[in-house]
Amino acid sequence: MDTTTSKELKARYEKLLYDLEYVVHELPAGVLFGADGASSKQCAELMADLNEFEKLCIELERPQAEFIEACRWHFDHYPHFLGRRRHFANYAQYITGRGGPIDVPRARR
Questions:
Q1: Domain ranges of the chain
Q2: Mean pLDDT of 39-44
Q3: Of 34, 64, 74, 91, which residue is least crowded by CB atoms under 10 Å?
Q4: How far, CA to CA in Å, does 93 sit from each of 19, 77, 96, 107?
Q5: Does pTM top 0.85 for this prediction?
Q6: How would DSSP label each residue in 32-78?
Q7: Computed over its alpha carbons, how large is the radius of gyration of the chain?
């Protein structure tokens, strides 16, 4: 990997990490997209970003398995919650009822 490519990959890694940390920082209230709660379609976009981030972690040898798996759980389950929210007092109740992570562990820097 040349220096330019390495810098670009590291910059993309940092940008995705910052963005992913932001969208989960309000848990267990919900997953954010911008200033609002994420929609099902936006969760799919976040999952695509997470998959890209996971590939960068491998390429850059920066393991973030716990962070990635917790994000993946929420990006996969939040749309399900949105479609059934009338059955739950809040997202925290949904999470605990399904044995999910109540929050996302901080990524290692």
A1: 3-97
A2: 98
A3: 34
A4: 25, 13, 5, 25
A5: yes
A6: EETTEE--HHHHHHHHHHHHHHHHHHHHTT---HHHHHHHHHHHHHH
A7: 15
